[in-house]
Design a protein that fits this description.
This protein is mainly alpha-helical. The protein has 6 helices and 5 strands; from the N terminus they run βββββαααααα. The strands form 2 sheets. It has a 3-stranded antiparallel sheet, with no helix packed on it. A two-stranded antiparallel ribbon has the order 1-5.
């Protein structure tokens, strides 16, 4: 937007005149006066007081506002107008969204879906009739839904910025999680902790890409929507790993599973 200021002119009052012209001067020819506002004072018939009315006088020049500031929006918008894409496959909403940020966001979508896939496999394992740890099954099912929700949130943001969502292949997860030394519960929870830390690393990488490309909007999105939540998830699962290491196998795992069944808190 271009803002151009014009010099203010002194107020002049003619003696005995009931008009008070604004922004006009005897030292300046009337033909050069861009805009004049005249206040007229009159007394209503049979009533006390004054009635004030306003009128403007214009010259052949462009009208100028009383503030002395000219608003000319179309000078700088010409450049933006030339950048509006005409091809039907191009986004109209895209602005200052680097290709590197778009690609990094698609990679993060793939990370979230892969983590969700592993959690879904863990849910299916603990829900077996010969495993029957319903608390762990519920925990990993909720975690899978949450990670898939993160992927969808990134997809919505990709579309918001005018990027294109490009889904990538998902790696097939394990189907057996019973570790000979640690047992299935501890091994699964340590795996979940590793996945949450990996997700955090990928989020920090996405944040670095946004900073390197001066994409402050993507920086704000990652910081406000994901980073704090990810640190909290890492802390929560770290506590679960520590508790499972204390209780060992057997009855302690069942009691831990009952705790998760009552809490129902996802990572």
């Amino acid at each position: 937007m271009l803002l151009r200021a014009i010099s203010s002119l002194p107020l002049m009052n003619s003696p005995g005149d009931n008009q008070c012209p604004l922004f006009s001067s005897a030292s300046q020819p009337s033909s050069l006066t861009p805009l004049s506002l005249v206040l007229r004072f009159s007394q209503p018939n049979g009533r006390n007081g004054l009635v004030v009315s306003a009128s403007k006088q214009t010259s052949n020049a462009n009208n100028r506002p009383l503030t002395g500031v000219v608003f000319e929006p179309f000078e700088q918008v010409k450049k933006e107008l030339s950048l509006v894409p005409s091809a039907p496959q191009d986004s109209l909403a895209r602005q200052k969204y680097p290709d590197e940020c778009e690609a990094a966001l698609n990679e993060q979508i793939n990370v979230e879906y892969n983590v969700s896939y592993v959690y879904h496999a863990l849910y299916a394992y603990f829900d077996r009739d010969n495993v029957a740890l319903k608390g762990l099954a519920k925990f990993f099912k909720e975690s899978s839904v949450e990670e898939r929700g993160h992927a969808e949130k990134f997809m919505e943001y990709q579309n918001l910025r005018g990027g294109k969502v490009k889904l990538q292949s998902i790696v097939m997860p394990l189907s057996e999680f019973d570790h000979p030394e640690k047992g299935d519960a501890l091994y699964a929870m340590e795996l979940a902790l590793s996945l949450e830390k990996l997700t955090n690393e990928k989020l920090l990488g996405l944040h670095s890409v946004a900073q390197r490309n001066d994409d402050v909007q993507l920086v704000d999105f990652v910081e406000s929507e994901f980073l704090v939540e990810q640190v909290e998830a890492i802390r929560k699962i770290s506590e679960y790993v520590a508790q499972l290491r204390r209780v060992g196998k057997g009855l302690g795992v069942w009691q831990f599973d009952q705790m998760l069944l009552e809490e129902g808190v996802a990572a």
